[in-house]
Amino acid sequence: MRIARYSHDGEVAFGIVEGDELAELAGHPFGPVSFTGVRHRVDAVRLLAPVLPSKVVAVGRNYAEHASEMGGEVPAEPLIFLKPSTAVTGPGDVIAYPSSSSRVDYEGELAVVIGRLCRDVPESKALETVLGYTCANDVTARDQQKSDGQWSRAKGYDSFCPLGPWIETDLDVSDLRLTTSVNGAVRQDGRTAQIVHKVPALIAYVTACMTLLPGDVILTGTPAGVGPVEVGDEVVVEIEAIGRLANRVVPRG
Ligand code: MG
Question: Do 15 and 81 lie in a common domain?
């Protein structure tokens, strides 16, 4: 099942994607769903970030080749950090390049969308808390990540967390192709099989610290090939069996 969030005629709703149509949901997709009977063509709505998380928990250096290109190794335990909810933006929205940075990078990532309130979840039950998966771009002001000594500002600018285009449920994410392209040129081409700390281990690790709420998102790390974007670029993160997340870079105004 593909769950989208969209706006149409000024109204925001969730819907299930069925081919080139959307079946509108009554309320939200967390728990049993019911339909209003309203249908739209997908190309007649504006797709939004598929969830509004209370928090985005991201994982650094979780692919060995990426850890190596950053001059390190994958840590023995997941290295987690937070991106603010206000960084989230949707498919087709812009990434706003701040004038305070001169090096902004894309990081294509598999995003886990949590389906219910949970804490202290054992690995063996972790997948029961997952609603589904979507594409993410963990946009990073690389210069500030280095100069600040911690990552809140570098990872936290408005629009630095594109999510979408929708949530794919009932998906085995153990080996999916993940690519990131800039203006059509492939820059990252990895597979989720290369993830070191796997999704169940990440959920167990994160929930041993903080309660996760329905709609919260875990970013699982980026494969090798990170690099800069410039104003005017179009960045596309694409994950096999999920979809395509495209965003254009504009100056922050
Ligand atoms: Mg990242």
Answer: no
Distance in Å, CA 159 to ligand 1 centroid: 14
The verdict on 9 and 74 lying in the same domain is no
In a shared domain, residues 24 and 79: no
The residues whose Cβ lies within 5 A of ligand 1, an ion, are 107, 138, 222
Residue range 10-21, pLDDT digits in tens: 999 999 999 999
**Three-state secondary structure along the chain?**
CEEEEEEECCEEEEEEEECCEEEEECCCCCCCCCEEEEEEEHHHCEEECCCCCCCEEEEECCEHHHHHHCCCCCCCCCEEEEECHHHEECCCCEEEECCCCCCEEECEEEEEEECCCECCCCHHHHHHHEEEEEEEECCEEHHHHHHHCCCHHHHHCCCCEEEEEEEECCCCCCCCEEEEEECCEEEEEEEHHHECCCHHHHHHHHHCCCCECCCCEEECCCCCCCEEECCCCEEEEEECCCEEEEEEEEECC
Q: How far is the CA of 58 from the centre of ligand 1 (A)?
A: 6
**pLDDT, tens only, 43-87:** 999 999 999 999 999 999 999 999 899 998 999 999 999 999 999
Distance 223 CA to ligand 1 centre (A): 9
- Predicted TM-score (pTM) of this structure: 0.97
| Domains: count for the chain | 2
Q: Are residues 113 and 218 in the same domain?
A: yes
Cα of 14 vs centre of ligand 1, distance in Å, is 27
Q: Are residues 199 and 172 in the same domain?
A: yes
Whichever domain contains 34, its CATH number is: 2.30.30.370
For residue 13, the enclosing domain spans 2-47
Instruction: State whether 173 and 124 are in the same domain.
Output: yes
CA of 253 to the centre of ligand 1 (A): 25
